[in-house]
UniProtKB/TrEMBL annotation:
Cross-referenced Pfam families: GIY-YIG (PF01541), NUMOD1 (PF07453)
Full protein name: GIY-YIG endonuclease
Keyword Acetylation carried by entry: no
Gene: ORF298
Organism per entry: Xylaria hypoxylon
Domain GIY-YIG: 31-117
Keyword vocabulary terms for this entry: Endonuclease, Hydrolase, Mitochondrion, Nuclease
Molecular functions per Gene Ontology: endonuclease activity
Annotated SMART domains: GIYc (SM00465), IENR1 (SM00497)
Phylogenetic lineage: Eukaryota, Fungi, Dikarya, Ascomycota, Pezizomycotina
């Protein structure tokens, strides 16, 4: 059995006062992936975590709104004792592209940090819910009927036609997302809402809500830029014959599966010896652009 008192780790970086070192913590760890450890200087309790972007994760630990909303052991401790009574250690930096979760699990196993309720990295297993949580969950389920077919079998898998998928994609136009701190410094830029959500560690709906309402849930500043998604269609003589507003429109109009269309746009190859598909911005070398006359694919 491991004697925890004999484990002496030498961190890569140590911040001895998390209040005074706040700005250095952000600047030193921008865009870096690593495993970190919070240490309470009063009671010596610790918390181990990991992130693919430490600066973004640490911003959340300094957000008063985030601390009040999370209600986990480490968030409550930071609120109770204050950042000045915590040390922060960078236990290990990860190489680019590596997933730090495995290494986080290693440190969880040997250090047994008290503030980590979940003993499995990146998992809610082990979290104990209080009685009030159970009551609220019960209330939300009241009145909901369960079909007999679902009691003894797995829910039926739903398959969508490519026309349906194309129509669904219209609800989520392509959006570039830029994240800034309060001082207007660019933290990072992302090509989609989904990749932004994964970076911050929230669900895509949260970022979509910020996009729709303009109200941020944390201390970041978000700027969204709608991509130009128009698709131009050329015949096999390289003559422009149509411009559509979105790949989904093109998919339906020319009876081509959405994924197949994406592949032909990327490759620039002729589809069924009839059509070339391009993003509008990529048509700089095509001729007869001014002679566009939309025609039916049939």
């Amino acid at each position: 059995m491991i004697n925890l008192n004999n484990i002496k780790l030498k961190p890569v970086v140590l911040y001895s006062n998390c209040l005074e070192d706040k700005n250095r913590i952000f600047s030193d760890n921008k865009g870096k992936a690593a495993i970190y450890r919070w240490i309470n200087k009063i009671n010596s309790k610790t918390y181990v975590g990991s992130s693919v972007n430490l600066a973004a994760r640490f911003y959340l630990y300094y957000s008063l709104k985030q601390l009040n909303s999370q209600k986990t052991a480490i968030h409550n401790a930071l609120l109770k004792y204050g950042h000045k009574n915590f040390k922060l250690e960078i236990l290990e930096y990860c190489v680019e592209g590596a997933n730090p979760v495995e290494r986080e699990q290693y440190f969880l196993d040997i250090l047994k940090p008290e503030y980590n309720i979940c003993k499995i990295a990146n998992s809610p297993l082990g979290v104990k819910r209080n009685k009030m949580f159970s009551i609220k969950l019960s209330k939300t389920r009241r009145g909901k009927k369960i079909r007999k077919s679902s009691l003894n079998s797995v829910s039926a898998v739903r398959f969508h036609t490519y026309e349906t998928k194309a129509k669904m994609s219209l609800r989520n136009p392509g959006v570039n997302v830029k994240i800034f701190d309060k001082l207007g410094n660019l933290i990072n830029e992302f090509p989609t809402i989904k990749s932004t959500a994964e970076y911050i560690g929230v669900c895509s709906k949260t970022i979509s809500r910020i996009y729709e309402t303009g109200i941020s849930y944390d201390e970041f500043i978000y700027k969204f830029e709608i991509k130009d998604l128009k698709i131009s269609v050329y015949d096999n003589n390289n003559k422009l014959i149509n411009i559509l507003n979105h790949k989904s429109d093109t998919s339906i109009a020319y009876n081509i599966p959405y994924t197949t269309l994406s592949r032909y746009i990327k490759s620039g190859k002729l589809y069924k010896k009839r059509y070339y598909f391009y993003h509008v911005k990529s048509n700089v070398n095509k001729e007869n652009d001014s002679e566009c006359v939309p025609i039916s694919p049939d």
